[in-house]
Amino acid sequence: MVEKWISYGFRVPLDEGEMEALQRALSHYLDVRRRRVRKGGGGPAPGGSRVIKRILAQLMRSCYRLNALSFGELELPMLQVGLANYQDLCEREIASGATMPFVADLVIIKRIRAALEEEVIRTFSASLDEKFQQGPDR
Fold it and tell me: Where exactly are the structural domains of the chain?
């Protein structure tokens, strides 16, 4: 029996404000990871900082040209953690009285996280539909 290796890619359309908020979120998360490493705590996943740097570089190069973020399934967890981390920061800063850019970013980050979730569900649903249409042997 031949095993197939399937890798999934995702593409989420973003407007300019969303791209800027995503860049701030990932830059913040990269800084958090750097501080952890300096303190000797390491990070939650080896190579994770490289993933964040790659996504940031992609934002700078192609997202402004394509108005979308493209990423693979292996990058998804780090992206989700980075966004959740920044969302937590925004909520803490708003609770302590700060407004700029946290109020706007909080709304945008929630919207990006929802779009990511919808894209993942759509991609995997389409993949499962295709598998069931092909039958069990394919």
Answer: 9-75+83-134
